[in-house]
Amino acid sequence: MFQGITFDEFRSFFQFLNNLEDFAIAMQMYNFASRSIGQDEFARAVYVATGLKLTRHLVNTIFKIFDVDHDDQLSYKEFIGIMKDRLHRGSRSYKAVEKATSFRSCLKKELATR
């Protein structure tokens, strides 16, 4: 049976993306050692780097989406490489950056009032 993502999980994922650079440093250590990471290591690295606790379901979903070779491990290239590429592709123009900044500030205000 398919289980969707809750709003809290969605919010956690985007809070995590706002701290992607901090997490990328942790992932880079695994990359230097030519290692990929499993779900437990991923969740632990996210928590250490960002202070966010992602649910097991959310971590599992992230792995289903980004684990390109289906080895139940995420490499730096599979996750950070793809996420950085997507973030840069979306912000190539000034208007895109302006819209993203406006959206982010609106989202922060909304989350702060909850």
From TrEMBL:
<keyword id="KW-0999">Mitochondrion inner membrane</keyword>
<dbReference type="InterPro" id="IPR002048">
    <property type="entry name" value="EF_hand_dom"/>
</dbReference>
<dbReference type="InterPro" id="IPR039800">
    <property type="entry name" value="MICU1/2/3"/>
</dbReference>
<dbReference type="GO" id="GO:1990246">
    <property type="term" value="C:uniplex complex"/>
</dbReference>
<keyword id="KW-0496">Mitochondrion</keyword>
<keyword id="KW-0479">Metal-binding</keyword>
<feature type="domain" description="EF-hand">
    <location>
        <begin position="54"/>
        <end position="89"/>
    </location>
</feature>
<dbReference type="GO" id="GO:0036444">
    <property type="term" value="P:calcium import into the mitochondrion"/>
</dbReference>
<dbReference type="InterPro" id="IPR018247">
    <property type="entry name" value="EF_Hand_1_Ca_BS"/>
</dbReference>
<dbReference type="GO" id="GO:0051560">
    <property type="term" value="P:mitochondrial calcium ion homeostasis"/>
</dbReference>
<keyword id="KW-0809">Transit peptide</keyword>
<protein>
    <recommendedName>
        <fullName>EF-hand domain-containing protein</fullName>
    </recommendedName>
</protein>
<dbReference type="GO" id="GO:0005758">
    <property type="term" value="C:mitochondrial intermembrane space"/>
</dbReference>
<dbReference type="GO" id="GO:0005509">
    <property type="term" value="F:calcium ion binding"/>
</dbReference>
<keyword id="KW-0677">Repeat</keyword>
<dbReference type="Pfam" id="PF13499">
    <property type="entry name" value="EF-hand_7"/>
</dbReference>
<keyword id="KW-0472">Membrane</keyword>
<dbReference type="InterPro" id="IPR011992">
    <property type="entry name" value="EF-hand-dom_pair"/>
</dbReference>
<keyword id="KW-0106">Calcium</keyword>
